[in-house]
Amino acid sequence: MKKIGFVFSSAPHGSASGREGLDAVLATSNYSEDLVLFFVGDGVMQLLAGQKPDEVLSRDYISTFKMLSLCDVEEIYVCADSLAERGLSDHPLVIAVEKVSPTDISASLGQCAKVLQF
């Protein structure tokens, strides 16, 4: 069975895109174990530890990413270049991820039967 890819490319606050993407991942994990998550561009900020969403009048869903391990979502990739461009290479993240190059992300996306972007 081919994998289903989820690409998170938007910042966590200011839109519901990240929360909707996380909801889609959690729902899909009930039906498939072949899920792959990619955090690129501003999407890398979805995983930053220590966020205070209440200060920007946003809902806290960032900590919900910790549920991914309970749903057997194990392939989680973060673009190392995106982290570096934002000065976040050493910033703690809320979950364990594999930092990879854009080339590696492209190769992994090519192995996905479907790709959803949030």
UniProtKB/TrEMBL annotation:
Main localization (coarse): cytoplasm
Source organism phylogeny: Bacteria, Pseudomonadati, Pseudomonadota, Gammaproteobacteria, Vibrionales
Signal peptide limits: none
One Gene Ontology cellular component annotation held by this UniProt entry: cytoplasm
Family: Belongs to the DsrF/TusC family.
Gene3D superfamilies, A to Z: DsrEFH-like (3.40.1260.10)
Name the record gives this protein: Protein TusC homolog
Source organism, top-level taxon: Bacteria
Protein location: Cytoplasm
Function: Could be part of a sulfur-relay system.
